[in-house]
Each structure stands twice: as structure tokens, then as C-alpha cells.
Amino acid sequence: MKPNYVSAAEAAKLIKSYDRVYIQGSTSIPEVLLDAITARASELKGVEMYSAFAVGRRDAPYATTELRDIFIPRSLFIANSVRKAVDRGEAQIIPCFLGEVPALFREGYLPLDVTLLNVSLPNEDGYCSYGISADLAVSAVECSKIVIAQVNKQMPFSYGDPLIHINDIAACVEVDDPLVEVPTAVPNEKEEKIGRFIAEQIPDGATLQIGVGGIPNAVLNALKDHKNLGLHTEAMTDGVLPLIKSGIINNSQKVVMPGKSVASLALGSRALYDFMDYNEDMVFKDVAWTNDPFRIRQNPKVMSINSAIEVDLTGQVCADSIGTRLFSGVGGQHDFMYGGALSEGGKTFIAMTASSGKGISKIKPVLTEGAGVVTTRFQTQFVVTEYGGAYLKGKDLAQRAHALIAIADPAVREDLERAACERFGYRFLREK
Predict the structure, then answer these.
(1) Boundaries of each Acetyl-CoA hydrolase/transferase C-terminal domain copy (predicted)?
(2) Where are the domain boundaries for CATH 3.40.1080.10 in the chain?
């Protein structure tokens, strides 16, 4: 059997009305295929389009007002390519932990007909790699009737779960399409302070879960004198490359896949993608595997570092919404906060600047009306701003309020104290 190479227009003909289609994510959205499918809009109706964490170079072509009765976008994590459609009410989000989405596919809650992939050239045995996006793609392919793929010269070949034989792809479209690159965020002064504080709490031999952005990069920059660190994370970024190349991250102390840097997806620069290509020391796994809290806990000294949009005085963390406006998704925050807390010697951090870019305090008396709780007050350990760290584990609500006010923007501390007095009464005053 020979690979079925066809044009994008021919491949798009495999999509039928009322199909349920999963679109691969990370920075590998198969945009050539999406354009071809969108071009067939007049021939289709009721096609459900499922996407998750993904960084597109533009808005999704199917998620427009004109096509809202043809394509039904459903997001498992609101990404930039569908955010405007969600804001318009023409796309919807399905609330879920990212690590639990594969079970929604496998158990039939979200049945799939088609998966769209962006894969590497086949290796000598005929296997293509999903490259930078194992996450949900592994389970989606497993549960779909048809797989359509861009076979892309620009996609690195990664090891682990994301492999498919080219003869198992119903239609292959040859492309030479550059992957989206995510610029490395350069930490500002406030973020550097946060990074240094967190790095001081991280012991040698720790296993890192770390995200994307200025604060995670500040943490990584401050780990250059550490030894024998490990990596078991959801997203692989450029920030880890200096630590891997220097041997600081060598994965020697890990229990789960020792010697290997483990992730579910990657997003970064071409340098990261090139470093990944045929690199057996980097392994990409199904997100249900990487994000299983009971697997995460098996590694020693798990350090889970996540961000927040706002935190209230009891330690409730909102990370997915701005009031009633859903902005992103839960992702793996809950999974790694839970797994990290269970790990022997593990620590969990919510890291954020004290105020937003608009000068609004991120530490609030109560969460904004409509805001969702991603990490509950029962799970929060460290909350860190540029003013220091508040350790909440084992503290009562009045003690938590004092600790959080101490790391809030000084301009709002008096207001926060008044709110805490009203809420917690004598015990708050007594603690003071």
C-alpha cells in the first residue's frame, strides 16, 4: 500500500456535513487543510470543529460570522485563533481539565469522525511524527474514523506517543509550511524578582513543571547554579534549552522516565523545533499521561509553577477568565498543582505580578463576579509577587489574608485590610 498523496482540495472532500473534526494544536495548526475545508463551506453544514490549546498565526478561517451555521467551533481551551468567535458567542468552550480530554474522546462523550494533523516527513520505517503536539492528538487519532494530514517538511520528528504510519493516513497533503514561532519572553524587573524568589525555593534534584512567559523564563534564568534538575511538564519552551544543553537539567533524579525530558507539547522558536528533531532525550506523550497527578507525584521534589489572573484573600485562584469573559482554559494547572503537592518534597507556586498592566491589583478581597476558580483555596501553597512569597498551607483564612496583603501592591494594601477586617473580624485584627 502506497501513501495517499493528494491536493488539499481533494483531501477536504473527505469532510462531510455533520462530521465532528479535531484540529491539532500547539503551534502546528494544519492551516492549509483548514483553508481547503473552509473553501468548501457552501457544500457543508453542521460541521463541529474541536480545537484546544493552540497558537495560530491568524483567526481560524471557519470561525467567522458568515460561516456560523456551517461550522460549529467548540474549544477545549480558548486559543487566540478562536477567542474572538467565543467573545461573539459564535463558538463555545467545553470546561475540562486538559488531561481529562482524552477520556472524553475515548469514552465517547465527544465522538470524533476526523482528525486533522500536521506531521513530519516519514522516517525510514514509514512513520510520521506529530512533532510538537502529542497532547490531544494521540487520543483524537485513536478515536477518529479518518485521519487527514499535512506532511510537512518543517515539522520536527519527536519520539514518544505521537507517531502514525503514513499508510494509516487517509489523505496526505505535502506542504512546506513554517510552524508558528512564539518569541521568548524577556522578563522585566518585577518578573526577575519573582523568578529569583521561586528559584531559591527549588532544591537540587527537583523535577520542574513550568509554563510559558516572562515569569517562567525568569525562574529558569535563576536556576543556572542548580544541579541534577528534571523536566516533566505540559509545554516545552525555549526557556529550558540552556539548562538542558548545560546539563543542569539532566533528569538523573527522576523516577518517571529518568534521563528523559518529558512534555506533551512544544511551542517556541525554530531553534527549539530543530533541537527536538530526532532527539531521543526528549519524549512527547499523550496529555492524559503527562498530566496524571498520580504519575506526576512519583517524581521527587516536583516544583509546579503556574500563573493567575487574580487571587482572593482566601487563596482562591482564577486563571481562565476575566470576570464572566472566558479567556483561556484550565490547562494542566490543577493536575500539576495536585501532583506537585502529593510529591515527596514537592512545592507548588502561583506566580504573578502584584498588579496588571493596567494597574489593577491581582490580589482582591473576593474574585471578580463571574470569575472561575481554577485552583481552590484548599490546594494553594505559595503565591508569589515581586513583593515576596505568601505561604498559605496550614494557615487559617485570617492568616492567609495577612500573608497575601503583605505581597500585594502597596497602593491597595489599606483597602485590602479594610475588606479583610469586615470579612474575618476579630481574628484578623488579632493576627495583626
Answers:
(1) 268-420
(2) 8-175
**pTM for this predicted structure:** 0.94
The residue written with cell numbers 524578582 in the block is 193
Mean pLDDT, the chain, as a whole number? 94
Q: Residue 432: what pLDDT?
A: 62
For residue 124, give the 3-state DSSP assignment: coil
Is the torsion defined by CA of 40, 141, 76, 383 positive or negative? Answer: negative
Q: What share of the chain is helix, strand, coil (3-state, %, to 5)?
A: 30, 25, 50
Percent of the chain with pLDDT over 70: 99
Q: What is the mean pLDDT of residues 380-409?
A: 96
Strand order in the sheet with 302-307: 230-231, 207-210, 302-307, 347-351, 382-385, 388-391
Question: Nearest 10 degrees: CA dihedral of 417, 420, 424, 428?
Answer: -20
Query: Which H/E stretch holds residue 51?
Result: strand 47-51
Looking only at Cα atoms, what is the longest distance across the chain? 78
- How far is it, in rounded angstroms, from Cα 351 to Cα 384? 5
- What's the angle, vertex CA 208, arms to CA 117 and CA 336, rounded to 5? 70
Q: Contact 33/9 with Cβ under 8 angstroms?
A: no
**Which set of grid coordinates corresponds to residue 212?**
510559558
As a whole number of angstroms, the distance between CA 332 and CA 96 comes to 10
φ and ψ at residue 210, rounded to 5 degrees: -145, 145
Residue 1 has pLDDT above 70, yes or no: no
Return the CATH fold of 8-175: Glutaconate Coenzyme A-transferase (3.40.1080)
259/30 Cα distance (integer angstroms) = 32
Instruction: Measure the CA–CA gap between 115 and 215, rounded to whole angstroms.
Output: 34
Helix (H) or strand (E) holding 415: helix 413-424
Where do you find CATH 3.40.1080.20 in the chain? 189-431
Active site residue 100: no
Which three-class secondary structure state does DSSP give residue 23? Answer: strand
How would you classify the pairing of strands 71-75 and 47-51? parallel
189-431, which class in CATH? alpha beta
